[in-house]
Automatic annotation (TrEMBL):
Organism: Ruegeria marisrubri
Protein name as annotated: Mut7-C RNAse domain-containing protein
Cited PANTHER family: MUT7-C DOMAIN-CONTAINING PROTEIN (PTHR39081), MUT7-C RNASE DOMAIN-CONTAINING PROTEIN (PTHR39081:SF1)
Lineage: Bacteria, Pseudomonadati, Pseudomonadota, Alphaproteobacteria, Rhodobacterales
Mut7-C RNAse domain boundaries: 1-144
Length: 152
């Protein structure tokens, strides 16, 4: 399942990427081009826009989310599409959607010493250069993903 989020769903897009789903985020396109892009890339369009979801071409490719808050949107996606929130956690950059790779020695060397000493696994984004590691923040995120997966 690949996703295309409308511009109002930036927060949800980051979480879908955190769960490992290939997720693009629209800037501000008109409805027609949103749909066209989603169809061309074989993505499910997620939107808060009722009119967009109602269009004819939408037919099964568009899912309307009614909730405003990310946790509620996450549960809504679980109900409506049975999204797997534990698909492949932390395998993508949450900022730009690129698949992460193992960090090189040089990249790890640039991480603050305090972190380097207590963490082992580092990944890097080939697009933006961010380095990720599994710390407390990571654990809290995983906890949330687990809850959504359980439908809680
Ligand atoms: Zn990145």
């Amino acid at each position: 399942m690949k996703f295309y989020c409308d511009a109002m769903l930036a927060g949800l897009a980051r979480w879908l990427r955190a769960a490992g789903h290939d997720t693009c985020l629209a800037s501000s396109e008109d409805d027609k081009s949103l749909l066209r892009t989603a169809l061309a890339q074989d993505r499910i369009l997620l939107t808060r826009d009722r009119d967009l979801a109602r269009r004819n071409e939408a037919n099964g490719r568009v899912v309307l989310l009614e909730s405003d808050r990310v946790p509620d949107q996450a549960r809504e996606l679980k109900r409506k599409l049975d999204v797997d929130w534990l698909h492949d956690p932390f395998s993508r950059c949450v900022v730009d959607n690129s698949p992460l790779r193992d960090a090189t020695g040089d990249e790890v060397a640039a991480v603050p010493k305090g972190v380097r000493e207590i963490r082992e696994h580092f990944t890097a984004c080939p697009a933006c250069g961010r380095i990720y590691w599994r710390g407390d923040h990571h654990r809290r995120m995983r906890e949330r993903l687990r809850n959504w997966q359980k439908g809680g």
